[in-house]
Amino acid sequence: MSKVIVFSIFILASIAIGVISGVSNLPGEWYQSLNKPFFNPPSWIFAPVWTVLYGMIGAALAATWYDENNGRRLIVFAIQGFLNILWSPAFFGMQNPALGLAIIIPMLVFILLFIAMSWRPNRWAALLFVPYALWVAFATMLNLSIVMLN
């Protein structure tokens, strides 16, 4: 299978997982009723940002997939991915910002670990994760603020 096809499959699968997670755990009235910090972005921004990020996550995975000695990085990638999938059902589905915070903090740690582990063997994969790390750091601060305000 050509690399273009593999990259396309990984990117589309990553976006699809993100869309399914988002559609399955819509914020709804409960989220609207929460006290939020002044830096809470408008609701419309989340879907496009996450769509781009999921595409970059899929590309980083595809790039890592072809690397030699990629086992540890793939495990770290899988852990952050699993935590990513858990966050929306915890925060929105269970309406539990504290549980969301307990998931997003280690998620951010594993994202940063993936970047650090990928920096030398695959700088491109690491750089693809930098915007993701920045957004999740912002989301962590938002999640923490919501816990504190509510």
From TrEMBL:
CDD domains: TSPO_MBR. Signal peptide: none annotated. GO terms for biological process: tetrapyrrole metabolic process. The chain crosses the membrane at residues 42-62, 74-92, 98-117, 124-149. It is a multi-pass membrane protein. Gene3D superfamilies: TspO/MBR protein. One of its GO terms (cellular component) is membrane. It comes from the Bacteria. The keyword Transmembrane helix applies. Belongs to the TspO/BZRP family. This is TspO/MBR related protein. It comes from Neorhizobium alkalisoli.
